[in-house]
Write a structure and sequence with these properties.
Elements lengths: L7 H11 L11 H9 L8 E5 L7 H5 L5 E6 L2 H15 L3 E5 L12 E7 L8 H11 E11 L3 H9 L4 H4 L6 H9 L3 E8 L4 E7 L1
Parallel strand pairs: 1-2, 1-4, 2-3, 4-5
Antiparallel strand pairs: 5-7, 6-7
Helix pairs in contact: 1-4
The structure holds S-adenosylmethionine.
S-adenosylmethionine (SAM) binds next to helix 1.
Amino acid sequence: MQDVKVDLARAEFFDEFSGSWDTHGPSPEPELVLTFLRKLNIDSEKTVLDVGTGTGLLVPHIFSFDPAKVIAMDLSVGMLEKLRGKYSSRFGAKLEILHGDVHLLNLHDSTVDIALCNGVYPHFHNKPLALSQLQRVLKKGGILAVNHFAGRQFINKIHGSSSHDLIRQDLLDPVMILSETIAGCGFRVKEWRDDKTEFYLIAEKI
Ligand SMILES: C[S@@+](CC[C@H](N)C(=O)[O-])C[C@H]1O[C@@H](n2cnc3c(N)ncnc32)[C@H](O)[C@@H]1O
């Protein structure tokens, strides 16, 4: 068992941002988000894990597909408190809010149908370990989606110009490199896109 520690440095960074996160920039158009989510076949039988949910940008969109449960998970308590204020009474028991680090994912094996990593993958400091945790909690045939509602160059420009040393290192590889990493962690890659406007990869647990 590796000696894995919670990523306190990034937790602190995102906590500082949590107060202004919802107003720091334009949100993706709802139709763009829904078009992406339709690819994941969310339905009333499915448990969806939103990894690095932040203040829950995707949460109401995921609920529009009537899933059995959404687990909104994040490293930052500040982000989750914002999310709780916005959505816990609206979605009730179907919304589980989980504080934690993906590298130490506190969920049982084979319990998740869809794991979504929107805008968070570059922040995983040990990508094979994070992917192995997601592979563990997904059911066989379960779906992993890594995505950004922006192009890779744009994301890397934002992260690369951060005043925070750690965030400057949180860069997104070209999708073919990501694909090799994910395929090496027990997934079959199904679909991807890496262009000026969008970045995503969808894979299935083997
Ligand atoms: C760029 S924000 C994206 C938030 C949200 N998905 C969105 O699109 O608005 C990245 C989020 O991932 C969280 N995060 C970063 N590293 C994480 C980790 N190792 N485990 C869980 N969450 C993490 C941060 O706390 C932050 O809320």
